[in-house]
Amino acid sequence: MPTFIFKTTLTIMHRIKIDIISDVVCPWCIVGYKRLELAIKMLEIEDLVDIAWHPFEINPNMPKAGENLNEHIINKYGTNLEAFTQKKEMLTNYGAEHGFAFNFNESTKIYNTLELHVLLDYAKKFNKQTDLKLEFFNSYFTKNLDISKTEVIKNILTTVGLDANQAMATLNNTTAKQNIKDQENYWQQLGVSSVPTIVFNNTMALTGAQPTDTFKETLNSLIKKA
Hints:
Blueprint: E1 3-5, E2 16-22, H1 27-42, E3 49-55, E4 67-68, H2 69-77, H3 81-97, E5 109-110, H4 114-124, H5 129-142, H6 150-159, H7 164-169, H8 174-189, E6 197-200, E7 204-207, H9 212-225
Parallel strand pairs: 2-3
Antiparallel strand pairs: 1-7, 2-6, 4-5, 6-7
Helix pairs in contact: 1-9, 4-5, 4-8
């Protein structure tokens, strides 16, 4: 079970703080979240958990318009189309187990996500961060929407109850974008090199889309320390 310990330790009192470092275009990130969500529900601790999402760009140099997903993965990882097709089928099955639909097709693209992370940071001020993150996942993986287009993003923002024009204005703020880069550097300096990475109470982290039972064990250990 992949874990690492942070230098900073905090004593848990009554709540569990969960930091999720992830990217919008990472399929394992939504699978991992769904498994974590199920573990939380099974333990009936929904009211004791505080979740915050943090940025990680899988492809920070990706052009805004994106690239074809199949071509990108084959070129980046040296795999072949057959192997990647099998992986997409596996992801589709994992998603279905938790009621999430992956609808990959030959025209699916992968996008630059810096601006989406800026908007997620903005949403935090309105307690809409998880809502927006899940809607980004749904729009990209399930609806196959072009999440690089302004009108698509504005519709997503409106769907979760945010002021789309006000939110989009933050994309013109260079400080807001630099803040995302600073957050990414912070987590990378702590050892985060892949996503999802899920940090519990700033003391322990699980990397990858761990099984629900692993998340339950981790949460139970924190509950016992409370």
